């Protein structure tokens, strides 16, 4: 028997076991990096001491409004300081953060308010009418706190308490509610509704903390990086990067509207060294005109995920001074959980096209994950030949607790001891994963998932439509956009513009089909629509 066979008295206690939480990063940073710049947005520049104070005041204000531990607080805010502060201030009062996609329609936001049970919502003035309409439709009594941005054309409406006034009246000595158990819920993120209504993904403090510890290793980050928040903070909490910045004493650069000019300006003026973004952002940078570009003399590290970027785009980014690393993940995994870890000794000597082809792979598991692989439908490992397709299966610390109020979907997602991603991929001889196709016909547009089923359901409600099928059409700017193939009823003759307008009234703009083709839909002998044929047609359209 080993010498530890008798562990009498070797128990967990307050001295040797503290629940893991990303909140601890900012509590430490208020001392370790007190005078360093924490957050930048135009003329808004706060130190870590000030950042901590503002987050504390937000927590205090929410508690004073009656928000209790376990309650949900939502946001409808672009990547601005208040959105970053909510990532710490909301859980610091014991609540669960629910960042909502600002591009969603009223009906979906109302559903999220109702399903999540939000007690309060922080809403940017640009989206205040969306918040009001969704609140009215849901019948909720949630408190709206308005976050104006007058300098960018969005002054306060005057109908709700204003964020800065709320902070000013709060208690700066409020004692943060740190989790008693790292399994406590930290965030509630709704998927894009790949089977109709969005599912609520529940994330815990432990997973987010370990994501913030693993990401700097994968990204080879050192202290005090300058990071620009481009991935929307409503999308997997911005891949957890905002929670990570205080760990490193980094500076978070906020940006309201993501444009090539804004990114180049931040790189040149603020010396941004890191950012993450969907392939649409890479295309934006590559295709920027001379009047949008700025010269810079340092290399910028980029994480990209979403629809796999074209190798040619990766090659062009390299020549512009950006080192792009392909990553992969889902809302259910807090964001990225694989990385295309670069093997310099093997790949540096390859020509640019060959390097870019390798960089387009999704790669291997990041440090906080246990196992990420590709399996058949019987959960058997596929051959490592780069040819046999299977489903990406994920196991590790940064996997969700489950789907809120949906135990059946949770059980199905975790069947066999792995999270079933729903994404089809191959695995190369070196173990690197590469996505081959998207399961369930998900369309990824600008990094956001679109359910073809949802769009089809809207089109099928048109009185002239017999059948509708929606697939992804390649798009230079967005990566993919929805393309609708519509079979009309006899005698009907609406225009494509009519169909698009009909859909736009019921869907968020990014979900609305950008192209409509009228035809008889190809079907199997059993009546199933052959979407692979439609994808081929969509790819050939101008």
TrEMBL record:
Which InterPro entries does this entry report, sorted A to Z?
AMP-bd_C, AMP-bd_C_sf, AMP-binding_CS, AMP-dep_synth/lig_dom, ANL_N_sf
The record's keywords, sorted A to Z, are: Fatty acid metabolism, Ligase, Lipid metabolism, Magnesium, Metal-binding
This entry's Enzyme Commission designation comes to: 6.2.1.44
Q: How does it assemble?
A: Homodimer.
Gene it is expressed from: entE
Q: What class of enzyme is it?
A: ligase
Transport found in the keyword field:
no
Its signal peptide is: none
Q: Which residues form the AMP-dependent synthetase/ligase domain?
A: 28-404
Annotated PANTHER family = ACYL-ACTIVATING ENZYME (PTHR43859), BUTANOATE--COA LIGASE AAE1-RELATED (PTHR43859:SF4)
One example GO MF annotation:
metal ion binding
Name of the protein this chain belongs to: 3-methylmercaptopropionyl-CoA ligase
Q: Enumerate the catalysed reactions.
A: 3-(methylsulfanyl)propanoate + ATP + CoA = 3-(methylsulfanyl)propanoyl-CoA + AMP + diphosphate
NCBIfam families assigned to the protein according to its UniProt record, in alphabetical order? PRK08162.1 (NF006020)
Organism annotation: Pseudosulfitobacter pseudonitzschiae
Under SUPFAM superfamilies, the record lists:
Acetyl-CoA synthetase-like
**What processes does the entry annotate via GO biological process terms?**
fatty acid metabolic process
Boundaries of every AMP-binding enzyme C-terminal domain copy: 454-528
- Superkingdom is Bacteria
Member of which family?
Belongs to the ATP-dependent AMP-binding enzyme family.
- Kindly give the Pfam families that the UniProt entry links to this protein: AMP-binding, AMP-binding_C
Name the cofactor(s): Mg(2+)
């Amino acid at each position: 028997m080993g010498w530890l066979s008798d562990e009498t008295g070797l128990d967990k206690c307050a001295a040797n076991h503290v629940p893991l939480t990303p909140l601890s990063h900012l509590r430490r940073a208020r001392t370790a990096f007190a005078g360093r710049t924490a957050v930048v947005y135009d003329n808004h520049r706060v130190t870590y001491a000030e950042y901590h104070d503002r987050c504390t005041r937000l927590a205090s204000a929410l508690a004073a409004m009656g928000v209790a531990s376990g309650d949900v607080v939502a946001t409808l805010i672009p990547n601005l300081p208040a959105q970053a502060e909510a990532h710490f201030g909301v859980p610091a009062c014991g609540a669960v953060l629910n960042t909502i996609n600002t591009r969603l329609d009223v009906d979906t936001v109302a559903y999220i308010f109702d399903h999540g049970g939000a007690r309060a919502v922080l809403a940017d003035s640009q989206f205040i009418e969306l918040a009001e309409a969704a609140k009215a439709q849901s019948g909720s009594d949630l408190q709206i706190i308005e976050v104006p941005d007058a300098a960018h054309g969005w002054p306060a409406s005057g109908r709700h308490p204003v964020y800065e006034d709320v902070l000013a009246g709060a208690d700066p000595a409020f004692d943060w509610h740190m989790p008693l158990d790292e399994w406590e819920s930290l965030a509630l993120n709704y998927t894009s509704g790949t089977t109709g209504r969005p599912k609520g993904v529940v994330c815990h403090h432990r997973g987010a903390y370990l994501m913030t510890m693993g990401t700097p290793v994968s990204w080879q980050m050192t202290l005090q990086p300058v990071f620009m928040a481009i991935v929307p903070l409503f999308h997997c909490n911005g891949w957890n990067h905002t929670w990570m910045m205080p760990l490193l004493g980094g500076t978070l650069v906020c940006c309201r509207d993501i444009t090539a000019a804004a990114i180049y300006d931040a790189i040149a003026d603020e010396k941004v060294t890191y950012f993450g973004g969907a392939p649409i952002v890479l295309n934006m940078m590559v295709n920027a005109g001379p009047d949008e570009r700025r010269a810079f003399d340092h290399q910028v590290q980029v994480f990209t995920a979403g629809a796999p970027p074209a190798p040619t785009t990766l090659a062009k980014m390299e020549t512009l001074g950006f080192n792009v690393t392909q990553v992969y993940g889902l809302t259910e995994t807090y964001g990225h959980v694989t990385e295309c870890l670069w093997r310099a000794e093997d790949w540096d000597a390859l020509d640019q096209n060959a390097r870019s082809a390798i960089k387009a792979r999704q790669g291997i598991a990041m440090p906080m994950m246990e196992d990420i692989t590709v399996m058949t439908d019987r959960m058997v490992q596929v051959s490592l030949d780069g040819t046999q397709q299977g489903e990406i299966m994920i196991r590790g610390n940064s996997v969700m607790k489950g789907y809120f109020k949906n135990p059946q979907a949770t059980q199905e997602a975790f069947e066999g001891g792995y999270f079933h991603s729903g994404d089809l991929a191959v695995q190369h001889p070196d173990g690197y994963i590469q996505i081959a196709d998207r399961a369930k016909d998900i369309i990824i547009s600008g990094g956001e998932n679109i359910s073809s089923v949802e769009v089809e359901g809207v089109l099928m409600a048109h009185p002239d439509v017999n059948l509708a099928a929606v697939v992804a059409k390649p798009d230079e700017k967005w990566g993919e956009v929805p393309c609708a193939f519509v079979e009309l009823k006899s005698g009907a003759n609406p225009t494509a513009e009519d169909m698009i307008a009909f859909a736009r009234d019921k869907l968020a703009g990014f979900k609305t089909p950008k192209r409509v083709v009228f035809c008889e839909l190809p079907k199997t002998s059993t009546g199933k629509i052959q979407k692979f044929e439609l994808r081929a047609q969509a790819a050939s359209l101008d």
